[in-house]
Q: What sequence folds into this?
């Protein structure tokens, strides 16, 4: 930077330039307004006056160092930060960048949901030579698939009496309570129609899970909802009652709170409606806890013994 500019900066920091320019604009605007009755002078005076006042506020406030050091112009930083996701999404992000779904995947879902054409001629836009790119090759002797309903068997005849042929597409665990009754009804109806399984989540089996009869995976967490005694410990008899329901195809043991490791989870009393309380087997309007750890076992071996208890309750 030239010496004269450095000297000027010492007396009148250049970072105040925009603020000072606003003040100068205010003076010129006022002058042209009063001297010549110019309407644009009035507009300029109003605009520059507002910016000058914003600058005064910026240098006087303390919480934001950027604004204190760069009055008026510093607001650009917050504005740009505010619209950063949109700028990324609309201008910078490529069609294949996934976070968590790429624009290409989202467009495909939108097109199919609207019944629009979802095929695009003239080849792929993917980089087919990129490391990790996967594709299907044509075969000169294609076979016929007997079914497009891809399923896997869970539970061998040796280890359990009711193995389950599960779809590879299922509905992941989301409790009644975190989802509304309408959502549970819709998901379970979908599971029924699609021939896949609906995971209850920790909140256990509610009456809404049973309306459409879609296959259920009953998730049992550290709160033992739906199979607990009054002290919140695992209750084998209560477990057996629900587990024998033919709609329940799988039991899933949730070991800990993935989103809150070491902390457990809390459902505040105000959210424990009678319907939620009924599904979980807890008193209504009372805080209900998912402890950080299980009380029925405390080691890998204990977990396997617990699983055996679940397989043969009573
Ligand atoms: C509303 C909501 C409730 C959830 N409840 C549970 C739950 O009770 N038990 C559980 O194991 N996971 C629960 N999850 C986690 C989901 O099952 C899933 O693992 C998570 O959302 C990550 O998958 P995604 O990336 O497809 O969303 C919940 C997720 C959501 C959004």
A:
């Amino acid at each position: 930077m030239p010496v004269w500019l450095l000297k000027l900066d010492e007396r009148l920091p250049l970072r105040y330039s925009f603020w000072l320019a606003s003040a100068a604009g205010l003076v010129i605007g006022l002058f042209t307004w009063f001297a010549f009755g110019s309407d644009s002078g009035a507009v300029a005076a109003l605009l520059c006056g507002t910016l000058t006042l914003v600058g005064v506020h910026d240098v006087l406030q303390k919480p934001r160092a950027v604004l204190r050091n760069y009055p008026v112009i510093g607001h650009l930083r917050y504005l740009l930060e505010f619209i950063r996701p949109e700028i990324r999404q609309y201008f910078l992000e490529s069609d294949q960048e996934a976070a968590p779904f790429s624009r290409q995947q989202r467009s495909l879902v939108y097109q199919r949901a609207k019944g629009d054409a979802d095929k695009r001629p003239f080849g792929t836009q993917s980089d087919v030579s990129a490391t990790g790119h996967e594709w299907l090759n044509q075969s000169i002797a294609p076979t016929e698939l007997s079914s497009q309903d891809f399923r896997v068997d869970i539970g061998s005849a040796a280890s359990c009496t009711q193995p389950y042929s599960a779809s590879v597409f299922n509905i992941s665990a989301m409790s009644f309570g975190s989802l509304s009754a309408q959502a549970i009804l819709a998901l379970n109806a979908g599971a029924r129609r699609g021939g896949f399984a609906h995971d209850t989540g920790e909140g256990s089996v509610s009456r809404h899970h049973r309306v459409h009869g879609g296959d259920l995976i009953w998730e049992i967490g550290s709160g033992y909802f739906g199979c607990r005694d009054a002290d919140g410990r695992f209750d084998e008899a209560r477990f057996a009652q629900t587990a024998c329901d033919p709609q329940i195809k799988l039991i899933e043991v949730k070991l800990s709170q993935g989103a809150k490791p070491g902390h457990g989870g809390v459902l505040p009393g105000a959210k424990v409606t009678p319907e939620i309380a009924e599904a979980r087997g807890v008193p209504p309007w009372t805080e209900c806890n998912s402890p950080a750890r299980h009380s029925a076992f405390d080691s890998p071996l204990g977990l396997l013994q617990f699983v055996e208890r679940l397989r043969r309750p009573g």
Observations:
- Residues 172-175, 178-179, 201-203, 219, 254 surround flavin mononucleotide (CB under 6 Å).
- The mean pLDDT is 92.
- The CA atoms of residues 233 and 303 lie 15 Å apart.
